[in-house]
Structures are given as C-alpha cells and as structure tokens.
C-alpha cells in the first residue's frame, strides 16, 4: 500500500537553531513529494516539491528538503528556525491511479521556542 | 487573483441531517479535489472532479457525494450525518495537464455535528 509516515507528532526547537521534520514514504514508481504547512484555522499552504533532478529542493520561507531514494525519505529542513515557523507540517506523496491524488502523512507540529 | 475559496467557513449540524459545502477553484484551475481532515489527522482524500465528472474516489461511503459545475466550482454533499463526520473539509484545485504543479488549498469548512 502506498503511504507516507511522519514519525514525530511534535518537534521542538529553539529559535535560531536548525530544524528537521522527518518524512518517509512508500510508493511504487518514482515519487512526487510535497511539503505543506498549516496555520491554525487555515488551509494547507504549499512549501516545496520534489519531482526529479537535484535531491536538495529549495522552497518558500527559507525551507528546503532532501530527497533520499535509498532511505525513501524526504525530510524538511531549515538552517535557522523562527518563532513564526511554528505550525503543523504535512508531507504528501502524489500517486497516479487513472488520475492524480495526494496521500498525506499525519502531520508534525513544529514548535519554535523564543 | 483569488485563490481557492470555500463556503461556509463554519457549520453546525445535528445527526441525520444533510449538508452542502461549496468550493470555487483558483482562477485557471479546472480540477477540484475534496479532503476530510479530522482533528489531529492529515487530510484524507474523498474524491476528485474534472469535466463535471467524479474521476477518482477515496475510501468514503456513498453518503458523500459531489458535483462540479461548468464554471469548475464544486459542491460536496454529505447525507445522514454522523458524529464522526465532524472535521475540517478542504477543497484543493489544480489545472489538469499541469501535472508538476502542486494543488492549491482553500481554508476549509469546519463542520461540527452535535
């Protein structure tokens, strides 16, 4: 079965420190991978995607993600966390079965402490 | 350029009632997907509409139905509401054929069942 796993329910990091939010996936074929962020009472905002090419993908708000095919991972990173980065982060994989649909992980709550 | 808009933002219903949620896709988008996000969970795919037809469906009962109009807007209908239907319902849109582009999400409708 195709799936996405986010092993950490919550990640705490001090402001200014680097952050990592983990994601692993299980899909057949080449994966299309995405990260979205959700602020309270809002929908999901797109951060970045991996389709093909360089394993390090840069996205919005200084975030980047590293695709690792051998480890089937797509971890989200940022060199220096801001308090305003505190939110819920979702990893997703796009699968194709006649048409495209997205499978989301259960989310990781990031808390950046001042 | 308006993004994805959903209405209403909040809704309270009782068990057994029926509800209709509405979505207008981002300008230029013609494909609409609906997701259910229960508290503390990631979004779960309900179904996708393109050219006024349901193209793919997730693991949801027939109580969940939808429609897409010629202007690409969409409705999600849920009949015989259950307590477990309480969730944030998200609409996402994209342009068919722009397969490398991410979906854009609305802010959702928060449905509470009493």
Describe what this molecule looks like in 3D.
The complex is a heterodimer of chains A (114) and B (114). Chain A is built from no helices and twelve strands. By secondary structure, chain A is an all-beta fold. The termini of chain A are far apart. In chain B, a hairpin with a 5-residue loop joins strand 7 (64-68) and strand 8 (74-78). The radius of gyration of chain B is 13 Å and the shape is globular. The model of chain B has no long low-confidence stretch (mean pLDDT 94). The chains are: A mainly beta (114), B mainly beta (114). At the A-B interface, strand 5, strand 6, strand 10 and strand 11 of A face strand 4, strand 5 and strand 10 of B.
Q: So what's the overall shape of chain B?
A: globular
How many whole angstroms does the radius of gyration of chain B measure?
A: 13 Å
Major pleated sheet of chain A: 6 strands, mixed
Separation, N- and C-terminal Cα atoms of chain B = 37 Å
Number of strands of chain B: 11
| Biggest chain pair interface | A-B, 25 and 28 residues
How much of the sequence of chain B is in beta strands?
A: over 45%
Describe the biggest sheet of chain B? Answer: 7 strands, mixed
C-alpha end-to-end distance of chain A? 41 Å
Q: Give the helices and strands of chain A as they follow along the chain.
A: EEEEEEEEEEEE
Low-pLDDT residue intervals, each spanning 5 or more residues of chain A? none
Please give the structural blueprint:
The complex is a heterodimer of chains A (114) and B (114).
Chain A: E1 3-5, E2 10-14, E3 19-21, E4 24-26, E5 32-38, E6 44-50, E7 56-58, E8 64-68, E9 73-78, E10 87-97, E11 99-104, E12 108-113
Parallel strand pairs in A: 2-12
Antiparallel strand pairs in A: 1-4, 3-9, 5-6, 5-10, 7-8, 8-9, 10-11, 10-12
Chain B: E1 5-7, E2 10-13, E3 19-24, E4 31-37, E5 44-50, E6 53-57, E7 64-68, E8 74-78, E9 87-94, E10 104-105, E11 109-113
Parallel strand pairs in B: 2-11
Antiparallel strand pairs in B: 1-3, 3-8, 4-5, 4-9, 5-6, 7-8, 9-10, 9-11
């Amino acid at each position: 079965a195709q799936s996405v796993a986010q092993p950490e329910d919550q990640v705490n990091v001090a402001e200014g420190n680097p952050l990592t939010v983990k994601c692993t996936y299980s899909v057949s074929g080449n994966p299309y991978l995405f990260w979205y962020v959700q602020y309270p009472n809002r929908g999901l905002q797109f951060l970045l995607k991996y389709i093909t090419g360089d394993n390090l993908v840069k996205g919005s708000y200084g975030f980047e993600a590293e695709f690792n095919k051998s480890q089937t991972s797509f971890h989200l990173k940022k060199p220096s966390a801001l308090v305003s980065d505190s939110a819920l982060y979702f990893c997703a994989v796009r699968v194709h079965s006649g048409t495209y649909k997205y499978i989301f992980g259960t989310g990781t709550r990031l808390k950046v402490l001042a | 350029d308006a993004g994805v808009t959903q209405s209403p933002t909040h809704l309270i219903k009782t068990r057994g009632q029926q509800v209709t949620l509405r979505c207008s896709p981002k300008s230029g988008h013609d494909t609409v997907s609906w997701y259910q996000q229960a508290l503390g969970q990631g979004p779960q795919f309900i179904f996708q509409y393109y050219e006024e037809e349901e193209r793919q469906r997730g693991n949801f009962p027939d109580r969940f139905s939808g429609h897409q109009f010629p202007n690409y807007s969409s409705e999600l209908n849920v009949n015989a509401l259950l307590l477990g239907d309480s969730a944030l319902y998200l609409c996402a849109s994209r342009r068919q054929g722009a397969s490398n582009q991410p979906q854009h999400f609305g802010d959702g409708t928060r449905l509470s069942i009493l």
